[in-house]
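Collaborator request, handled under Task 6.
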Amino acid sequence: FILAGILLITYAVHALSPVTTSTDSAWTFHIAASMLRKQDINLDEYRGLMDLQLDYRLRVFNGHIYSYYPIATPLLVTPFVWLINKVYPLFYQTDFYTYLARHAPDNRTAKLEKLIASGIVALAAALIYLIARRWLGILKSLIVTFLFAFSTSVWSTASRALWQHGPSVLFLSLALYLILLAREKDSAFLWIVAGALLGYAYLIRPTNSLAVAFFGLYILINHRKFIFGYGAGVAIVLIPYMLQNWLTYQNVFPPYSYQLFERLASLQGFGEALAGTLLSPARGLFVFTPVFLFAVYGMYLRARQGQIRFSSMDLYLVGILLTHWLITSLFEDWGGAWSIGPRYFVDVIPFLAYFLIPVLQADIFRTPVWNYVFVTTILVSTLIQF
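Structure tokens returned to the collaborator:
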């Protein structure tokens, strides 16, 4: 009942929120439709709708038009595009495929993006609740879930369009939940599934390779007998991906994967970026989501409890967060370009939310002043996203 409530309320609030930000993701439905109709990933059939000189989202390779961005999100939403195409004639005089063939991305497709992205975020919120319930009671788990869904960029960015970030958050949340289950149940199958999910998370967004690596290191050190299963799960996803890239680009990685090396900032700007990603008035994580100052405190509590050690998963989650911060600070456009708030931090919000759990377990809230501070950061964080 509680999970159903989380799904429905989160979806309703996010879907009804009017703002859409379909920019990088604008051609998602066209790519998905091409996959469904032609079983390929090029956009040649939509050439007449495009301005190839001005549209930064498109690239021409060997005479074919491709999206510059990863195809994992369009592939993920193909079932929804198929369903939309089936019901579309009930409301309009044509099917959805025909509409896409005649129209470049527009306000209608942007609103549909928002509806699907809101569902993806609602599923992630339910998973965060399940993760929190492993340590907390119902009320405190609901607080963590509320913070995740409404007090972070999950609301103001991830659900506003089919960015890479929403699916990334979902897959990392699901992988974290399954890893928690797998280490308790000693289940080889769950490790394989977790590996496949993390492999797909990497396809969605290359910076998720950090999660693949750190979780792999955790398994290698603490659950060594399952490392080959985990690796097999990752390989199940990566091998077809690399084959597709080879057939398309004559390289095992698509052009998008090399952008980090093309967009590195100077060393002089690195210090500014390190500070800016956390404290910039326009992009700072702790400016737009001050409640995550308590996530840092949660890491401190775990360390004081002796949980930041090689045998504890907490150490590897901290490793993901720190290296993610360092790598995104290396970007020349560390601010996240045309967006609002700390967009590059959205992917790791499930791990930041995880470190709110020890804070809610702690005794500090017996002190009225800390209750006041905590509630104030929640209100500020939520109001900013709203």
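The cover message to the collaborator said: "The longest strand covers residues 58-61. Residues 218 and 224 are 9 Å apart (CA to CA). Please let us know whether this matches your experimental observations."
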